[in-house]
Design goal:
The protein folds into two domains: 125 residues, Orthogonal Bundle (Cytochrome Bc1 Complex, Chain D, domain 2); 97 residues, Cytochrome c-like domain (Cytochrome Bc1 Complex, Chain D, domain 2). Helix content is 44%, strand content 0%. It is built from nine helices and no strands. The radius of gyration is 22 Å and the shape is elongated. The N and C termini lie far apart (85 Å).
Amino acid sequence: MRKRHLQLCLAFIAVVTFILPIICIAEDTTAGRKVYEKYCIGCHGEKGDGNGAAAKNLIVRPRDFTSGVFKFKSSPAGTLPAADDLKKIITYGLPTSSMPSFRLMPDVEMEAVIKYMMTFSQRWKMEKSGEPIGSVSVPDFVGRPKSINKGKELYSERCAMCHGEENEGGSVSFTLRWGAEQCKDLARPANFKNRIIKRGSRVEDIYRSIILGVEGTPMLSFKNLISDEDRWHLTSYILKIMGKERR
């Protein structure tokens, strides 16, 4: 009797420890798959490789989730994004691309589809999300004339060859696949004259693009290339190009 009781206890522990989590994961995946098939499969494809039926008609290719490489995130280069990064992209979309805003999608559906998206790449099973850089405090000098002038010097040295001078926009000669093999996409420098970048139009978004870079493209992280003060000066000048400097 005691032996039988012990066997039942061990069986119960096994169910709770191993079987229930698998069932829960399957349920989460099923819910997310339904959302994915409803909203995402047309562009990102059944396999999450960015080869959906509409992909061939898009200038900017849909994200290939199988690579585990994401351009816009709050974590350092080479690391996976946080779930909140993916939620932000789904919520607000990516300006100047075909990725629309899904801000009306219920949270439960958004969380489910993010979990499903994570099944496309083995990286999510082997790695943890990178540590986000956290909140950013904008210095008072950002957007001021002195900061803009310093940023203009830095821009000419570091940025103009790809993004073009103030009145030029992005350089066509750098609309190349160079450095973009991971994303399987054409790397197009941002044209700041359009007054917005894909990460967003806030001051903090511009700064984050400078400090984090855009992974899988020629846009490098400037975290170890210039000082933090200079990164803010660059931000000031880019704001001017975008017509958003302080008056």
